[in-house]
Amino acid sequence: YFFTQKLSWNNINKFPNTTFRWIGLDGSSVLTHMAPAETYSAQCRPGELINSVKKHKDVAYTNESLYLYGNGDGGGGPLRAMLERMRRMSNVDGLPRVKQAHPSEFYKKVESSARELVAWKGELYFELHRGTYTSQSNNKLWNRQSEFLLRDAELLSTVASLGAEHSDFAYPKEELTRLWKLVCLNQFHDVVPGSAINMVYRDSDKMYQDIILSAQSIRQSALASVYGAAVAGNPAQASSLAVLNTTGWVRSDIVAIPASQYAQFAGAAAVDSGRVQVRQSDGAVLVPVANVPGFALQQVGVDTDALRTVEHPASVTQVGDTYVLENRFVCVQFNGSGRITSFYDKREKRELVPAGAAGNVFELYDDVPGYWDAWDIEIYSQEKCTELPGTVVVVVDEGPLVASISVRVPISDGSELTQTISLAEHSPRLDFACDVDWHENRKCLKVAFTWDIYSDMATYETQYGVVQRPTHRNTSWDMAKFEVCGHKFADLSEFGYGVALLNDCKYGHSTLGNTMALSLLRAPKAPDEHCDMGRHKFRYALYPHAGTFSESNVVQEAYQFNTPLLELPISDPFASSVLKLRPFFSVSGARNVVLDAVKRAEDDERSFVVRLYEAYGGHARALLTSRLPFSRVCKVNLLEEPMDDGDGDGIEWLKHSTALEVPFKPFEVVSLRFTL
Question: Which of 113, 118, 464, 479 is most buried, most CB within 10 Å of its CB?
Answer without folding.
Answer: 464
